[in-house]
Amino acid sequence: MAISITHSHCITSTLTQTPFLNKTHTQINLSQKPINIDNFPSLKEKCTNSTLNDAFHSLLIDPDHAYAPLLEFCAKQRSLQQGKQIHAHMIKSNSGFSSVFLNTKLVFMYAKCGSVLDAEMVFDKMSERTIFTWNAMMDCYVSNGEPLEALEMYFEMRNFGVCFDSYSFSVLLKACGMVEDVHCGSEIHGLAIKYRCDSVAFAANSLVAMYAKCNDLNGAKKMFDRMKERDDVVSWNSIISAYLGNGRFLEALELFREMQKIGVAANSYTLVAALQACDDSSLVKLGLEIHAFILKSSGVLDNYVANALVAMYVRLGKIANAAVIFDNLEGKDIVTWNSMLTGFIQNGLYSEALEFFCYLQNAGLKPDQVSIISIVTASGRLGHLLNGKEIHAYAIKHGFDSNVLVGNTLIDMYAKCHCMSYLGRAFDKMPDKDFISWTTVLAGYAQNNCYLETLELVRQGKMEGINVDTAMIRSILLACSGLNSMVHVKEIHCYITRRGLSEPMLRNMIVDVYGECGQIDYAAQIFESIENKDVVSWTSMICSNVHNGLAIEALRVFHSMKESGIEPDSVTLTSILSAVSNLSILKKGKEIHGFAIRKDFLLEGTLSNALLNMYARCGSLENAFKIFISAKITSLVLWTAMINAYGMHGRGIEAVELFTRMRDQNLTPDHITFLALLYACSHSGLVNEGKRFLQIMKCEYQLEPWPEHYACLVDLLGRSNRIEEAYQFVISMQNYEATPEVWCALLGACQVHSNKEIGEIASEKLLELKIDNPGNYVLVSNVLAARGRWKNVEQVRQRMKVTGLIKEPGCSWIEVGNKVHTFLARDKSHPESDEIYQKLAHITEKLVREGGYVAETKFVLHNVGEEEKIEMLYGHSERLAIAYSLLRNSAEGNPIRITKNLRVCGDCHTFCRLVSKLFEKELIVRDSSRFHHFKHGVCSCGEFW
Questions:
Q1: What pLDDT, on a 0 to 100 scale, did the predictor assign at position 692?
Q2: In sequence order, what are the residues at sequence separation of 6 or more whose Cβ sits closer than 8 angstroms to the Cβ of residue 333?
Q3: By Cβ atoms counted within 10 A, which residue in 10, 15, 97, 117 is the most buried?
Q4: Could you tell me what percent of the chain has a pLDDT over 90?
């Protein structure tokens, strides 16, 4: 019996390393009486080389010899059903009840088949147990993911005085590594020393692995260094894996090199570990060397090493190298295909991933869980909803949808495809949701503007015991910002404070959200409370100021940031360029552009868009175009920005030509592109082109126009004095009820062309709608004032007061001497006010005397006398800015650049034309609608503004 038990232990030790084999579900007919066969070796031969059913016909009378090979064979094939049949036959034939050997075999078989409960039942009923029985049961717990049960059994064995062997320590150390309990592992290490098992190779290797998994790399290295014999490749694999598991890739590769020096032959596990250590782009050369070593040492790649090579090249971004290995590999398995598929995803080659997935299916392979996750990810990144749905259906059909990783990826895919109904269903259908599931679904709802749904889901998650973390709070704050709900923002702020969540990232997010909700004072308080402000903190405060129209304050914060020694990043520069654009201060914009060049910022993507927009809004169309043509990657956003820049400067024909070039580049325009194009047509009088582009948008690109597109077309028709056509278009709109923007565009045209009848209708329609833009009330008021209906004017102004809306006063600003000077209408707050008004009087006198200037008082829409109207015209803010610029003798040859928050009135337009002619100065005036370039008495708008 002793010999048989020893033999059993050897088999057990060997089979613990056997890779998983597919189950065979052969039905076996058992007779009541065992069948005699000639000798035991023939039975073992049948178990090894034949089927389980054939082996049953060769049973021996001796139960140990009869059933042991059969149980081993069931364990090898993970055949639980057949193993239970053998167990049942043993019970019926009354065989093996008293055999420790057979019961140990049963425990081992059930362990390998994953049936812990059955193994426990056999183990608990045993009246006698050997160390091999205890080892089998502990191994059962460990191999089936229950390491704590194995450690409990360890303490039970010590209480019973069971003597351990080297295999016991190997199993127990693995359990300690799984739970990362270094104290228990050290105790078992001490016991192993006591039993003199620490020098046994596989026990020593287990000690190395245990210390490594418990994050005690020094302990692992000390254990390895104490090994007397170092010619065992498994020992080297253990220590290399230890360094690899702790992210010490260079040290792992050094050990690999040392192993080669002393002549220990590497096996597949060693090579795979070395390849996995090449985890950084700086290790490309080493990866190539290891590849060369593999080819030199063996010449033929097994799948295990080949898959590791593919994975390495994928990590290093060398997709072409990975593809060569893949193409030359015979007998590719699903792991090989998945490695390539994952590689395409990791390197952003999503279209290639979809195409490769088709090859996988054509090769006759069935996608597994990894394949599904990869292809769903690619579909989401590309926004290919149909592909995503097809893979989702496949996952449901084959039962993959119940896997939490697949479910999380599906949620993310539907979020990126903006398909919220399917996102909600995919989340609800998940049988098991983890923390990532909740984080992903909340982010999906928040990023797709489903703000109320986000907050409702947060409440549901809290009821189910989900702990809210920083990522979830970010989604919640995004929802609060979208709802502009200060109540919720303050509630979340209090929650963060109560929980003591003082991470800088959360504080920066709070600054962002308060700024986006218009609470700039709260944002500033939180910003000041951050002790160690990083670049994100400063950028958040800059963005908050820009968002609230405080461009000058944003520039002040930017200056303070640089003084504090914090270097801005590309996001900071993008934000501050937006502030510069709002102020239209070209000199500051050029300074920031120069800074970006000196600091080697990549002038692509968002930053190039911001630079182009800055130059365009600062009146330098030439520099804007230089940014456009210098960009290596011209995205749709950049093309749209350049089209908008042309439109802003009244260069409609150039905008149309650029749109044609964009289409030739096979770029598909979106709603924003067509909005910029219609805007350009509107400010250049390109009526036929504008109407044609609206049809192209609907018919060729299947884009349903927004109200803003219709407003642009109405504005285009109205500016061209085709008022009746514009009105008929408005009342014929089918998909949209005319919005305030549409009626406002029509009313503005009626005011310019004095169409009282349609203007009256537009005014009434505009007042019927719920409008929150004071400019719309002002426009109605101006139309009524132009007709002398002062009583109605007072009613409109009273209505504005009731709704809490305030007319924005006319304001102009100009950059002189590195400082922005701001002027309100009839402003006398400037320190040089007297000199400015004297200069303005001199300018006006010259315009009257030499240019025949006569004030057009019809543009003064106040119920006052003619003389007072003239005085009001003379005090318009842009004239004060011009006077100050000429007073300060702005640099010869440089244009005068003025920015105005309201539209330039007709009289000031005439004033600017005459100044450009009589004072031989180019004026570039940006009003609320567009740019006017005045030169030699002519304006770029062609009197069409």
A1: 96
A2: 303, 307
A3: 15
A4: 43
Q: How many Å from the N-terminal Cα to the C-terminal Cα in the chain? A: 106
Element (H, E) at 596: helix 586-598
Interacting residues of 851 by C-beta distance below 8 A, sequence separation 6+: 914, 917, 918
What is the spatial distance between Cα 312 and Cα 276, in angstroms, rounded to a whole number? 6
* Distances 255 to 237, 264, 312 between C-alpha atoms, Å: 9, 11, 19
Amino acid found at 800? M
Q: What is the pLDDT of residues 94-141, one digit of tens each?
A: 765 568 888 899 999 999 898 999 999 999 888 889 999 999 999 999
> What does each C-alpha distance from 843 to 274, 741, 853, 884 come to in angstroms?
81, 38, 11, 11
Angle (CA) 550 554 558, round 5°: 175
Q: Is beta strand 896-900 parallel, antiparallel or unpaired with respect to 811-816?
A: antiparallel
Determine which of 27-36, 190-199, 411-420, 848-857 has the lowest per-residue pLDDT on average.
27-36
d(CA 554, CA 574): 12
User: What backbone phi and psi angles, to 5 degrees, belong to 541?
Assistant: -70, -40
Please state, in angstroms and rounded to a whole number, the distance separating the CA atoms of residues 258 and 246.
19
Answer yes or no: are the C-beta atoms of 95 and 66 closer than 8 Å. Answer: yes
Phi, psi for 164 (deg, rounded to 5): -90, 155
Q: Which residues pair with 897 in a beta bridge?
A: 924
**How far is residue 267 from each of residues 220, 224, 236, 435, 887, measured CA to CA in Å?**
21, 19, 10, 39, 85
CA angle 11, 15, 138 (to 5 degrees): 90
Are β-strands 896-900 and 923-926 bridged in parallel, bridged antiparallel, or unpaired?
parallel
Structure-block tokens of residue 348: 């952003």
Three-class SS of residue 379?
A: helix
Q: Which residues of 842-870 are buried (b: 16+ CB within 10 A; e: fewer)?
A: ebbeebeeebebebbbebbbeeeeeeebb
Among 883, 752, 755, smallest CA distance to 830 is for: 883
What's the full length of the chain, in residues?
945
| Amino acid sitting at position 355 | E
DSSP character string of 640-701: HHHHHHHHHTT-HHHHHHHHHHHHHTTPPP-HHHHHHHHHHHHTTT-HHHHHHHHHIIIIIS
Predicted TM-score (pTM) above 0.90: no
- The DSSP code sequence of 746-771 is HHHHHHHTT-HHHHHHHHHHHHHS--
β-strands 931-935, 938-939 pairing:
antiparallel
Report whether 372 contacts 426 (CB < 8 A). Answer: no
The closest of 477, 557, 470 to 517, measured between CA atoms, is 477
Helix (H) or strand (E) holding 332: none
Task: Show the tokens assigned to 823.
Answer: 């002027």
Q: How confident is the model at residue 47, as a pLDDT?
A: 56
List the one residue out of 88, 126, 85 whose CA is nearest residue 107.
126
Q: How far apart are CA 686 and CA 856, in angstroms?
A: 29
Helix pair angle (621-630, 605-617), 10° resolution: 160
pLDDT at 37 exceeding the cut of 80: no
Burial class (CB in 10 A: 0-12, 13-18, 19+), 49: exposed
Give the tens place of pLDDT for each residue, 59-74. Answer: 444 566 778 888 888 8
Q: Strand 819-824 vs strand 931-935: parallel, antiparallel, or unpaired?
A: unpaired
How far is it, in rounded angstroms, from Cα 106 to Cα 84? 9
Residue pLDDT, tens place only, 541-577? 999 999 999 999 999 999 999 999 999 999 999 999 9
Helix, strand, or coil (residue 246): coil
Coil, helix or strand for 114?
coil
**Cβ atoms of 534 and 507 closer than 8 Å:** no
Identify the residue whose tokens are 């699903």: 334
* 505 residue type, one letter: M
H-helix or E-strand containing 925?
strand 923-926
Distances (CA, A) of 621 to 52, 643, 650, 897: 83, 11, 11, 13
